[in-house]
Specification:
Helix content: over 70%
Shape: elongated
Number of strands: 0
Number of helices: 11
Structural class: mainly alpha
InterPro entries: UCP010219
Strand content: under 5%
Organism: Streptomyces chiangmaiensis
Protein name: DUF3159 domain-containing protein
Order of helices and strands: HHHHHHHHHHH
Keywords: Membrane, Transmembrane, Transmembrane helix
Pfam family, one: DUF3159
């Protein structure tokens, strides 16, 4: 290894570390994954044991609220826990309205389908959704669209991965919604919660780790402001002298 190669490798390692940290921040990490699984796990477990829709639904809603309270008590971000509460609440409302326990899962399934289409459509439109999600996290905002083509290509690949993985998940779940009973659908859905998500996150990491580093537009703005202040100060000194 030459002295010229080492800084490049160090920069690549730093970029990969930053990418990994950003993905964990954006998608909630291990705790966020647990919070998406636990309410549904409570629902399907209780329903499997006693077939009581109301008890199962209320238990799922209660545990999702407890997760929010725990986040608040720890003064941690609650966006992932709150999204879980809203998802469970919609499921509870659907199931209570129809009296069909399988409808507890329907809002989440429709959301997954809509998200899959959003990833694909935005990528075809030239503004891949994963770039819109991660751009602010990497402090690059939308600079990747016009100033960083290699990064835009990586975001497009990642968005295709998310879209196709979620579509594959929907291709499994929607037939089960019609043909399987509530417990079968519930346990399959629980089984499909984390593995497809981890696959999509891993592929995103692979694509972005190989992409050019993000352009820190916030640092650029701060540098421009500092330069403007220096010019203003220099102009003032010249006038005074």
């Amino acid at each position: 290894m030459t002295s010229l190669e080492k800084p490049t490798e160090d920069a690549q390692q730093d970029s990969r570390a930053v990418t990994e940290a950003a993905l964990f921040e954006a998608f909630g990490g291990v705790r966020g994954m647990v919070e998406t699984v636990v309410p549904g796990l409570f629902f399907v477990t209780i329903f499997t044991l006693n077939k009581d829709l109301h008890l199962s639904a209320l238990a799922a809603l209660a545990v999702s609220l407890v997760l929010v309270v725990v986040r608040l008590a720890m003064k941690d971000t609650v966006k992932h826990a709150f999204s879980g509460v809203f998802g469970v609440a919609f499921g509870v409302v659907f199931a209570m309205m129809t009296g069909n326990a399988k409808d507890f899962y329907l809002p989440g399934m429709l959301y997954t389908l809509g998200l899959a289409l959003a990833y694909i459509i935005t990528t075809l439109a030239g503004v891949p959704l994963i770039g819109l999600i991660l751009g602010p996290v990497f402090k690059e905002n939308l600079s990747w669209r016009t100033r960083n083509p290699g990064r835009k290509k990586a975001y497009a690949k990642a968005s295709w991965a998310w879209g196709l993985i979620l579509l594959a998940k929907c291709a499994i779940l929607f037939p089960l919604y019609w043909w399987a009973d509530t417990t079968q659908l519930g346990w399959v859905l629980i089984a499909l919660k984390i593995p497809p998500f981890l696959l999509a996150v891993w592929l995103t990491w692979v694509f972005l780790a190989k992409a050019p580093a993000p352009i820190d537009v916030f640092a650029e703005m701060e540098a421009e402001e500092a330069a403007a202040k220096e010019r203003e100060s220099a102009g003032r000194h010249r006038r005074e002298s």
